[in-house]
Amino acid sequence: MATRVIPPRILRNLRYNTATKPLNSGHPSLSPAAALSPPSLLDQKPPSSSVLPPAADLSALNFHDVEKLFSYIPTSKLVRSSAVLHATGIEPMVDLGMWVMRSKLMEMEGLRDVINAAIRGTFYDQFCAGEDAVTAGKSIGSLNNAGLRGMLVYGVEDAHDNEGCDRNQKGFLHTVDVSRSLPPSSVSFVIVKITAICPMRLLERMSDLLRWQQKDPSFNLPWKNDSFPIFSESSPLYHTRKRPEPLTAEEESDLELANQRLLELCQKCVQANIPLLVDAEHTEVQPAIDYFTYSSAIMHNKDGNPIVFGTMQTYLKDAKERLVLAAKAADKMGIPMGFKLVRGAYMSMERRVASSLGYASPIHNTIRDTHKCFNDCSNFMLEKIANGPGGVVLATHNIESGKLAAAKAHELGIGRVNHKLEFAQLYGMSEALSFGLSNAGFQVSKYMPFGPVETVMPYLLRRAEENRGMLAASGFDRKLMRQELGRRLKAAIF
């Protein structure tokens, strides 16, 4: 049986028994490296105290020792990161960059190459892991040496026909293949966007039908499989103004193709023993995404091993209610369920759509309310996994949320390198938080999109637009980076 491979950096900071076992073993491998079955994030139940590492050292969760925080980042990368984060923290500069990328300048062949080269050397290299899965795998290797893990995401956006969906599906399947060939445990998740493997129009139609069924439980959906609750009593249903027509024969055929794509991807992840994390999107299509996620989880999450994870966006007012309903339904059915908790990334779109339909925004009214919701959901999931199956990924760039979750995990006895809990940040952002949590003994992953510059351009544009507030708030990281650069300069001179 394969033993869990602990990154060397964590071995230097923690002393513990490495006999934590993986959930599955004996699956076929693609290469000698993959023959060591990468363990799942989660254990069926907490192992006995005799094989658990000691609780995480919360005293290590500090941000004063900049030399330790950034010890694995080369000076050249630290300089680039500081410069790029500073530039993206200036909103007029972000606006200018977005205008250029969307302008007709990108249609001028020579000029387009110059712009793409500039993007590649700055914004792209900072926030993307490479132009293909193999290059992204090398980036994960560097992260792993520093004690972090990678979440691989093929950086494509929405698909509008089956041809596009099939093309994207090949990319996602290849991502799993590459993940299996990397060192065990270096890839924590493979990410999938349902909007990339199911036509957007079909997701909109399915979401309309699911919302109408929530309004009228007698409304029959013959294509619907078993699922957990998708809505709560406070969930917004305003997108669907009138009773929708049933799916046409062509739409049902497209739905079957989408089901087959997701089934194939889930089966590949089961064989590789690598969890599949389904990204969340905007509320117009999120009901259909949750349906795909939950029906797949019911089929594939077995024996305490959640292969399929969903995502909850806690800037939504109904997030906590939906999380509790889905988690309780999963428990009742004996299905181990995992969730990634994020604040959310479609704020401007949600407010614009709600306003156009004459409704209040589904987003919390204040940032304080959003922080409270994220922290409440974190507490709920930490208490749940401390006492039973399941798993949680706490995807946060907020220092206080990180500290609170780390303290809660410590209090519950899961404050250590533990398969049930993972912290996560975007690649190229919140390095101080990532390394601070890692230094304290927690598992930490970076969300790593990859693909050619032209392919991931929509992703980069959306990140720039939706994360402008977070980018502007990256001053904490920039301050610590400047301190470390100053320390290195002094050390070089004196």
Order of helices and strands: HHHHHHEHEHHHEHEHEHHEHEHEHHH
Overall pLDDT confidence: 83
Strand content: 5-15%
Largest sheet: 8 strands, parallel, barrel
| Unreliable spans | 1-55
> What is the helical fraction, as a range of percent?
40-55%
How is the quaternary structure best described?
A: single chain
The secondary structure category is alpha/beta
- The counted number of beta strands is 8
The rough form would be described as globular
**C-alpha termini separation:** 51 Å
* Spatial strand sequence of the major β-sheet: 1-2-3-4-5-6-7-8
Radius of gyration: 22 Å
Number of helices, where a helix is a run of at least 4 consecutive DSSP H or I residues: 19
Cofactor: FAD
Organism: Crotalaria pallida
Enzyme class: oxidoreductase
Domain Proline dehydrogenase: 186-470
Structure description:
- The chain has 494 residues and is an alpha/beta fold.
- The protein has 19 helices and eight strands.
- The protein has an eight-stranded parallel β-barrel with strand order 1-2-3-4-5-6-7-8, surrounded by seven helices.
- Strand 1, helix 7 and strand 2 form a beta-alpha-beta unit.
- Helix 14 runs parallel beside helix 15.
- The longest helix has 24 residues.
- The radius of gyration is 22 Å and the shape is globular.
- The N and C termini lie far apart (51 Å).
- The N terminus is likely disordered.
Short description:
With 494 residues, the chain is an alpha/beta fold.
SSE blueprint:
Blueprint: H1 8-13, H2 66-69, H3 75-88, H4 91-102, H5 109-127, H6 133-145, E1 149-154, H7 162-181, E2 187-192, H8 194-197, H9 200-215, H10 249-272, E3 276-278, H11 286-300, E4 308-313, H12 319-333, E5 338-342, H13 347-356, H14 367-386, E6 391-395, H15 399-412, E7 421-426, H16 431-439, E8 444-450, H17 453-466, H18 468-472, H19 475-493
Helix pairs in contact: 3-19, 4-17, 7-10, 9-11, 12-14, 14-15
Cofactor: FAD
Protein name: Proline dehydrogenase
Region (Disordered): 21-50
